[in-house]
Amino acid sequence: FLSHEGKQWYQRRVREHYYITNNLSIAESFSIMADTAELKDGFSLFDKVGDNNIEASQIGDVMRAFGINPTNAQIEKAIEGIDPAGKKRIGFNRFMPVFETVKGASKPMTFEDYVEGMKVFDRDLVGYLNSGELRHLLTFMGEKLTDAEVDQIFAGLEDDNGNVQYDELIRRLMKDA
Length: 177
Known about the structure:
Blueprint: H1 4-18, H2 26-32, H3 36-44, E1 53-55, H4 59-65, H5 72-82, E2 89-91, H6 92-105, H7 111-119, E3 128-130, H8 131-140, H9 147-154, E4 163-165, H10 166-176
Antiparallel strand pairs: 1-2, 3-4
Helix pairs in contact: 7-10
């Protein structure tokens, strides 16, 4: 659905969401520091045609890329308000009021939400992830972290078997936020 640049942008935003920098979550970062130009740039990455519009059906994807976690009902209501058929392309100026409305109604991600996200990688559902596999993902996928950055994230969390208890990892990252 996304261009190569769009995928990179989205992956960067997801990584920022999970690996908190500057003591802020990505949603807080967008609320505090993101200006309209940055939001518009992110919006334009979802434009497949080049007319500075997106499909109304992409509203949820764009919101998620901006760190908002809307429910399906919120997305359907937003699309219905803009285009009941869901086929119309909308511009940034029509998107922003919908975004602000859903942003105000969306709940921030909780500890449990992050744990559920990590369970995707926990094949045996034992509460641990192999630090080597996690390190590989962080250093070779999307916007790559350096080994030093991963070492800093993992410091004191790896057990003797080379595993990381992901709920402790999440607690640390949320504490630092």
